[in-house]
Every structure is written in structure tokens, then in C-alpha cells.
Amino acid sequence: MPVRAWCLVLAALSMAAVCGTPRPAYGHAPPSSLSAATPASHHEQMLDERANHLASELRCLVCQNQTIADSTAPLARQLKAEVRHQLARGATDQQVLDFMAERYGDFVLYRPPVTPLTWLLWTGPLLLLGLGALLIGRRHMTHLPPFPMDTDDDR
Q: What are the C-alpha distances in Å from 48 to residues 45, 84, 106, 136?
């Protein structure tokens, strides 16, 4: 890390030590009448919950193995902001998912729909498993020695 960066870090730590942590004005928690949730903040809280729920159903296009709710990538933050913006405009959950799938493809959905384009993804593992079992069975059957014939002379 360059010297300039270290100086900035030390300055920030010094300011935090000098200023301390913020405290309530009266040294205690505000009265319950002031801390009661207003309808607007309740609406914002519900909007955030819906946005987080939808963000957990969308794949991060950068990370690919994380949802945008779990990812810290800049694109994931932008997608989360877009989800929240769409919900704030009054879009339903399905409309937001449809918008994202239209814009980024079905890959953005953590549970892509079964369509003619994706049926091979859904059935491929089962087809490969069946094909492997068939090939192993055929190979095993061709290498077996023939069964000895029972004859009455051997008894």
C-alpha cells in the first residue's frame, strides 16, 4: 500500500478516535412516541423486504454462484437498486422477474423456467445417467462367459 494510502487510513482512524461514536442527545434512547414507525417507514421496510426476497431469486451475473442479495459486486448492487426501483414504481414481483429475464436472459433467474430452449438442461442429467447405465450394462453383458450347459451326464 502506498504511503499516501496509509496516511489516509491513519487520518481516518485518528478522526474516529477523537470524535468518538455518536450518542443520543439526552444520553438515553428516545421516547417510544418518537421511535414509533411512521406509515412511510413501514412502507419502506416492506419494500426493502420484497426487494431482498426478489434479490435472493436472481443470480449475480458476475459471480454466477451467488444471488444478487449475497453478492458484493458492483453489478449486483445495481441490479438490487433496479429491483427496488421497479417495486417502488408499483411493479409486481413477477413483473420484476420478467423484466430481468427479458433484459439479461433466463440465466439471471435462479430457477429458470422449463421451455423448449431449456428442456435439455432439465432432462440432460437424467439422460446422461441412463445412457451411462445402458453402456455399462451392455459392456458387462458382452464380457460375461457363457453359462455352462447342464447335461445329464455330469450328474
A: 5, 7, 24, 53
Residue type, 67: T
SS3 (DSSP) at 133: helix
Convert the pLDDT of each residue in 24-77 to its tens digit. 333 444 444 444 445 568 888 999 999 999 999 999 988 878 999 999 999 999
Closest CA to 115 of 96, 101, 129: 101
Distance, CA of 93 to CA of 99 (rounded, Å): 10
What are the pLDDT digits (tens) for 83-126?
999 999 999 999 999 999 999 888 888 887 777 777 777 788 89
Q: At what angle do helices 93-104 and 39-55 cross, to 10 degrees?
A: 40
List the one residue out of 53, 86, 56 whose CA is nearest residue 68. 56
> How far, in Å, CA of 67 to CA of 109, rounded?
9
87 contact partners, CB below 8 Å, separation of at least 6: 47, 50, 51, 54, 93, 96
Contacts of 117 (CB under 8 A, 6+ apart): 106
